[in-house]
């Protein structure tokens, strides 16, 4: 077993690459609302739109994005584990090995048993030292791997354990968890971490726990705590039937269509630039996952989109939208700046980043958008265009 390394996502700081500004808008004014036809939106497309629903072979990637909701943030394992280390989509077998750092011995098993998709997330009680967990920390990494059937998952779990154990059979020692008889586990005496692999429905959950001291009883206690939190999340998750994965809609609720982009052509699912996620995607990388979890719950945030350099969050209502904006600004340490004159319910900030240091949050009914740029004038035009897009899309 190798020590899990930092899993990060763009959501950590919402720091985004620049868009190109540009002019003209469509729309029909609604009573008591701003007539968006009067706004200068540059060349941004702001008319009502629907993206192609065809996955074009990206069904497994879409399922992997959905699986972010089946992996619990570590703060739900224990309240002390509130430092989010991020989450990552595992769209390919190579991702499982290279990105989530599962042993390379896993790849033949994944191939043999029909690996479909996965998601991994990590959290700790202490900030990382560099890009690795602090040796004094308790750090948990959960990988969830999807297979075509529960039978395949059962076979894969045992074979993944056997392959990992065989990397150093003279040093590893098998362990067990009486509460989870289907789980496989082993550790190296004297090394302060433990791995557990367990089949659950069509999934294999792989847990890696590191602690400050190499204590077998203590490590198994934390492994059990992790499974106690993760197993119900897997059970509650509605996996897409294997034969329907390629039919998953790219933009099921048209959140991506409501998110500002420079050009609508050529977009395909991508976890960083064209994606739909549930609320866990916003929680996994948070510096304080306890606060972020409460913010999500208090605002009813149930879905989010990211397209190019823009984000869109769906919340309970406009009041909740204002609460979400205030919470994000506070947690990200952003500093208020001026907002565009003609765009209502918009807050603009400067944030801590080497690039794209300006951001505007635009609230429209139950939607909150975040647009980013490297100049104040540019971010103002993006905010204006985003408001027009939201108004035209509802």
What can you tell me about this protein's structure?
It is a single chain. 27% of the residues lie in helices and 21% in strands. It is of the alpha+beta class and 394 residues long. The strands form two sheets. A seven-stranded antiparallel sheet has the order 1-2-3-7-6-5-4, with helices on both faces. The chain has a seven-stranded antiparallel sheet with strand order 8-9-10-14-13-12-11. The termini are far apart.
Q: Which keywords apply here?
A:
394 residues; 27% helix; 21% strand; 7-stranded antiparallel beta sheet; 14 strands; alpha+beta
Task: Please provide a brief summary of the model.
Mean pLDDT is 91; it is low at 1-31.
Shape, per Cα inertia axes:
globular
Label the structural class: alpha+beta
Which band does the percent of strand residues land in?
A: 15-25%
**Portion of residues within helices:** 25-40%
Count, helices: 9
Provide the spatial order of strands within the biggest beta sheet. Answer: 1-2-3-7-6-5-4
Beginning-to-end CA distance, first to last residue: 51 Å
Biggest sheet layout: 7 strands, antiparallel
Mean pLDDT: 91
The counted number of beta strands is 14
Helix and strand string, N-terminal first?
HEHHEEHEEEEHEHHEEHEEEEH
Radius of gyration: 22 Å
Low-confidence runs (pLDDT<50, min 5 residues)?
Answer: 1-31
